[in-house]
Design goal:
This protein is mostly helical. The chain has two domains: 77 residues, no CATH class; 214 residues, MetI-like (MetI-like fold, Orthogonal Bundle), CATH 1.10.3720.10. 80% of the residues lie in helices and 0% in strands.
Length: 312
């Protein structure tokens, strides 16, 4: 089989696995929501609603049907591209998701970019200067960032850059200035963990015999570092990045709430408050699909960084 056909078959297998993974995630979340306490109809009706009013809302929402009937109905609509209708707003879930998707993608991609740039740059600097003052300083900063909860770091950023210095807005979405603080907050933990991973990988690769051989051949230190050491050191870091995407998505819920941003995370928080099952399912499906596709891109990037992976 040619390399192109092998790559296409691999991508196809991973896409099938992605669909199966999203389906399994949807099933699990559906069952968890069904077993959680609280009746969506009662939450919508309010505390003073009569039993008849609650029963009418249950009939309208379909939550009075057996579990298997609700599940089969939901999956049937899902296979036809219908994510359902919000319990609280009577608006199609797909429309609500489309309206909030742009803000979430903007925040997520900017945080990913900041994390990768900071993680690679500071990780390489720390690894090359192993056991020097620069390495100790970077390690101290990363230790501080990994121990800082996202909501607390977000409030700290607001106090410094919005309240004290008045440089950047604290809340809202839509402009580049409003994106800086949320992106910095969301990327902090991921950047710190990537920095540590890249640092350790660079230190390990620098101790490999082939690095000594390359230096003995008279190659410039810059060429040895960027053409050979960094390429080998990035494989573990990329693997870790794929695993940390899920953590980034979960942290986005907190960040969007702290900075009062529009987005899927804030939409999820609102839906959980009233047990809006179709909305929760829609956000969950998007998040699981995004996570699976991100890990697929991570796997495919291996062959670009290290041709030996493609050969294997």
């Amino acid at each position: 089989m040619s390399a192109g056909r092998a790559d296409a078959a691999y991508v196809l297998r991973r896409l099938v696995a992605a669909v199966a993974g999203s389906f399994a995630a949807a099933t699990l979340v559906f069952l968890i929501l069904y077993w959680l306490p609280g009746d969506p109809a009662a939450l919508i009706a309010g505390d003073d609603a009569s039993p008849q009013m609650v029963a009418n809302i249950q009939a309208r929402l379909g939550t009075n049907a057996p579990l298997w009937h609700q599940y089969v109905t939901y999956i049937g609509h899902l296979l036809h591209g219908d994510l359902g209708t919000s319990f609280t707003t009577n608006e199609p879930v797909s429309h609500r998701l489309a309206g909030q998707l742009g803000a979430s993608l903007q925040l997520t991609f900017s945080a990913c970019l900041m994390s990768i740039l900071a993680g690679v740059v500071f990780g390489v600097i720390a690894g090359v200067n192993h056991d020097r003052w620069v390495d100790h300083l970077i390690q101290s900063v990363t230790m501080f960032m990994t121990s800082m909860p996202p909501f607390w770091f977000g409030l700290l950023l607001v106090m410094i850059f919005s309240v004290t210095l008045r440089w950047l807005p604290a809340i809202g979405s839509g402009s580049l200035r409003q994106l800086i603080l949320p992106s910095l907050c969301l990327s902090s933990l991921l950047a710190a963990q990537l920095t540590n991973m890249v640092r350790n990988s660079v230190i390990d690769v620098l101790e490999e015999p082939f690095v000594t051989t390359l230096r003995g051949k008279g190659l410039l230190e810059r060429s040895v570092l960027y053409r050979h050491v960094l390429r080998n050191a990035l494989i573990p870091a990329i693997t870790m990045f794929g695993l940390l995407v899920g953590e980034l998505l979960s942290s986005a819920v907190v960040v969007e709430t702290v900075f009062a941003r529009q987005g899927l995370g804030r939409l999820m928080v609102e839906a959980l408050g009233v047990k809006d099952i179709p909305m929760i399912m829609g956000v969950t499906l998007f998040a699981s699909t995004f996570l699976i596709l991100a890990n697929l891109l991570v796997d495919l990037s291996y062959s670009w960084i290290d041709p030996r992976v493609r050969a294997a």
